[in-house]
Amino acid sequence: MLRILVVGGAGYIGSHMVKMLGRFGCNVTTLDNLSSGYRDAVLFGEFVQGDMGDEALLNQILTRGFDAVMHFASCIQVGESMRNPEKYYQNNVVNTLNLLNAMRDKGVMRLIFSSTAATFGEPQYTPIDERHPQQPINPYGRTKLMVEQALADYDNAYGLRYVALRYFNAAGADSEGQLGERHDPETHLVPLVLQAASGRRPHVSIYGRDYDTPDGTCIRDYVHVEDLCFAHWLALQSLMDGATSQVYNLGHGSGFSVREVIDTAMRVTGREIVVLNESRRAGDPARLVANPALANASLGWRPQYSDLVTIIKHAWSWENKRV
Residues 51-76: pLDDT tens digits? Predict the structure, then answer.
């Protein structure tokens, strides 16, 4: 039985991961400070409320012995990172270094890291593969890139092996309806659209209708949260089997526009959604689409929920539980 510490396991993706690990028979411990997560989202294993910045607590927990750590405990809002970079450098970089140091001290030498496509910055080409230059344009992306660089150095110096998974757009909800997105404030498109459909929000905004795309709105690569979690599971298996450290881009290799997401949501929900057309936001590229070929070939990862309708159906089921 694998013993896994999930840091940030009460959040959106982390809680889905804890459930999957529990279903796969792992012994799971969740560490989360509940700054953005929810205690009732942790459905399996032991829960410890605490912070990566607490060195004494990390050392106490890691003394128990784990096969690996999964790290989801990053601050993730691009806009907030621009307004309050201190929070992002402290949590995403300094606190992650605390975690790495505690892992090294206690001999826990495998890590699965939740990274992001924001490390690439403005795309020079699409779909984006792992060789694409990394030139992040906000503190969120920069802090994630710094951790990726630290991981490479810790591997070279100390033998701490890792897999960093760069998400494009996580979306959807637990297919059994137990878990979903609960960000506050919410910034992700799919839940914003569905909140407008349910009446919890008066409208949804489209920021820019004049992009060089078929319908003029931005295109993004949406990946179901359960597919992301299964990629973590496969990455964990690769490290347990002795694989070297690696970085993978996770996406479908194709995308959907903002307008397509809204139109699909109206079909799935059977409701009209009020749309406001706003001006472009700075830093929004026209297309962000992954090239997942390396993850496909090396991990054998293939998204099971590849159609937008299923992603939105699962998210809508979760939204209906919150109305």
Answer: 999 999 999 999 999 999 999 999 99
**Which residues pair with residue 161 across a beta bridge?**
110
Neighbours of 279 (CB within 10 A): 10
| pTM more than 0.85 | yes
Tokens of 271: 């409701």
Location of structure tokens 């990390």: 58
Q: What is the mean pLDDT of residues 281-304?
A: 93
Inter-helix orientation angle 96-106/139-158, to 10°: 20
> How much is the pLDDT for 281?
83
- Per-residue pLDDT for 106 more than 80? yes
Cα dihedral across residues 237, 99, 43, 87: positive or negative: negative
Counting residues of the chain whose pLDDT is more than 70, the rounded percentage is: 100
Active site residue 140: yes
Q: What pLDDT, on a 0 to 100 scale, did the predictor assign at position 270?
A: 97
Question: Which of 12, 140, 162, 248 is flagged as catalytic?
Answer: 140
Evaluate if residue 285 carries a pLDDT over 90: no
Q: Which two three-digit tokens encode residue 202?
A: 């008066």
- Average pLDDT (270-281) is 94
Using 50, 70 and 90 to split pLDDT, how confident is the model at 184?
Answer: confident
3-state SS, the chain, equals: CCEEEEECCCCHHHHHHHHHHHHCCCEEEEEECCCCCCHHHCCCCEEEECCCCCHHHHHHHHCCCCCEEEECCCCCCHHHHHHCHHHHHHHHHHHHHHHHHHHHHHCCCEEEEEEEHHHCCCCCCCCECCCCCCCCCCHHHHHHHHHHHHHHHHHHHHCCEEEEEEECEEECCCCCCCCCCCCCCCCCHHHHHHHHHHCCCCCEEEECCCCCCCCCCCEECEEEHHHHHHHHHHHHHHHHCCCCCEEEEECCCCCEEHHHHHHHHHHHHCCCCCEEEECCCCCCCCEECECCHHHHHHHCCCCCCCCHHHHHHHHHHHHHCCC
The residues facing 170 across adjacent strands are: 223
